[in-house]
Design goal:
With 374 residues, this protein is an alpha/beta fold. It is built from 15 helices and 9 strands. A hairpin with a 5-residue loop joins strand 2 and strand 3.
């Protein structure tokens, strides 16, 4: 296909040396902090940075991306999308589009891709686009690249790959993009699986109607998030460019900004990341080497408060609710928008594909079986 080409991720030694030099020149701040109450813990970040500087090997993570299948697609507008494409070894595979959010990347799916393909009796091709302005996808040059526009580009990619029917899956901004793909392309999108479900109580009903006690407990996640963790959202929604000057120039500033989310949004132990330091630093490094932190945060300004449509969709939908996610609405709210055919609650946090790949993969496979495609 003339618009699709293999893309080898290969950061130059010069860029790796520059990262190390900038780490060595870090001017550390003072700290008043208690259990991350004011943000990223100083000693935690110093230890993580020491590992980043002296032991972390970016080349290992480049190889993982390239081994899965790394490509770029030139869209009709000229913007290039980087994406992973892992094809089943069997014929007539069902395409599954897995879409990441912020501060994630396609690297979130490196563990789960082989698990899904190994454990599914139904052959599945997996496509993971890197959002415009993220990683090695092009950065938009004009305003307007919101979740709806990204959904249009991702559909274009699927058609270019030769897929007429597909299933969408996502969390975070990937949930909004998946919803848009289902809404805009009902003749192509045959199912939607979400590990972060965006839904609000119906205006004309008691919000607690048809909700369980367990669901009511999980509703408190969003209130806690608004009280303790929404500051990043407000600045990225309003002044992402100002933020970008510091984060694009300081690897420690960038790491602090991203690591805080990987600490606070996981279902983990105090002062410890649930996933390995290597996995988190691989994502931080991808933002650093691609210089995509500023362009990635602009998605918040493009989407405003939601990036979401409340129009109903008819395709079968599966909700995988992870107990420590930022938003964990009850099934009754989701049913106001979606055609819910599967609804499960799992242990874990916001980055389900990284933290709980076995649980999420089983949930996805069960949903695909329910679609009776084969």
């Amino acid at each position: 296909m003339k618009n699709i080409e293999e893309f080898e991720v290969k950061v130059s030694e010069k860029d790796i040396d520059l990262l190390n030099k900038k780490i060595d020149l870090t001017r550390w701040p003072d700290e008043i902090n208690h259990r991350w109450s004011h943000g990223t813990d100083l000693n935690f970040l110093k230890e993580l940075t020491n590992y980043w500087r002296n032991e972390f090997n970016w080349r290992d993570h480049e190889k993982k991306i390239n081994d899965i299948g790394s490509y770029r697609y030139t869209t009709k507008s000229g913007l290039k999308l980087h994406f992973l494409h892992s094809k089943s070894k069997k014929d007539n595979a069902i395409p599954l589009v897995m879409t990441h959010g912020w501060p994630g990347s396609i690297q979130e799916f490196l563990k789960i891709i082989p698990i899904i393909q190994k454990n599914s009796d139904i052959p599945i091709d997996i496509i993971c686009p890197s959002l415009p302005g993220f990683g090695f996808s092009d950065k938009p040059k004009e305003v307007g690249m919101d979740s709806k526009q990204i959904a249009i580009l991702q559909h274009e990619l699927l058609i270019a790959l030769g897929y007429d029917k597909y299933i969408v899956q996502g969390g975070d901004w990937g949930a909004t993009i998946s919803k848009w793909m289902a809404e805009l392309y009902p003749n192509h999108c045959i199912g939607i699986h979400l590990n972060m479900i965006i839904a609000w109580p119906p205006a004309d009903k008691d919000p607690l109607e048809n909700t369980s006690q367990e669901e009511q407990k999980l509703m408190a996640n969003y209130e806690k998030y608004k009280e303790q963790g929404v500051g990043y959202y407000e600045i990225q929604k309003t002044k992402p460019q100002t933020l970008g000057y510091g984060l694009n120039d300081s690897p420690i500033g960038l790491a602090a900004w991203i690591v805080e989310k990987f600490y606070g949004w996981f279902d983990g132990e105090e002062n410890k990341l649930v996933v390995s330091d290597d996995e988190v630093l691989a994502i931080v490094s991808l933002y650093w080497f691609s210089e995509s932190i500023t362009s990635s945060t602009r998605l918040y300004k493009e989407n405003g408060d939601l990036g979401f449509s409340f129009e109903n969709i008819k395709q079968p939908m599966a909700g995988a609710v992870f107990e420590r996610d930022l938003i964990a609405p009850p099934r009754a709210w989701a049913e106001e928008i979606y055609n819910v055919v599967q609804w499960n609650t799992h242990k874990g946090g916001h980055f389900a594909a990284l933290e709980q790949p076995e649980s999420l993969s089983a949930d996805i496979i069960d949903f695909i079986k329910k679609l009776n495609i084969v």
